[in-house]
Amino acid sequence: MNQTTIEEPQDYLGMWVTEDGYIRHELLPNHRYDEARGKRKSAYLGDYTITGNHIDYRDDTGFTADGEFREGVLYHAGMILYREK
Q1: In whole angstroms, what is the distance from residue 50 CA to residue 85 CA?
Q2: What per-residue confidence (pLDDT) applies to 11?
């Protein structure tokens, strides 16, 4: 299986969006993220860490989750997010 990863950590930065646009993850350069859900801006805020093509999230309430970047797509908690262009 070919699993292309993004080579440069800064390439992970920016907005990641589900196909329907309902969930939007913005990965900020200070290792913080801001997740919007529908019209609810900043529904979840927290920190993230990227190791290789793996991302670990810890929101400000202490909830943790993770995901993986594969071939330019972010797979996270059953969601598929695409880089906003």
Answers
A1: 21
A2: 78
What Rg do the C-alpha atoms of the chain give, in angstroms? 12
Q: How far, rounded to the nearest angstrom, does the alpha carbon of residue 40 sit from its chain's CA centroid?
A: 17
> How far is the C-alpha of 2 from the C-alpha of 22, rounded, in Å?
29
Using alpha carbons, select from 4, 3, 44, 52 the residue that is nearest to residue 27. 44
Q: Mean pLDDT by 10-residue block, N- to C-terminus, for the chain (85 residues)?
A: 54 94 96 96 95 93 95 93 91
> How far does the chain reach from its first CA to its final CA, in angstroms?
26
Question: HEC profile for the chain?
Answer: CCCCCCCCHHHHCEEEEECCCCEEEEECCCCEEEEEECCEEEEEEEEEEEECCEEEEEECCCCEEEEEEECCEEEECCEEEEECC
CB 49 within 8 A of CB 56: yes
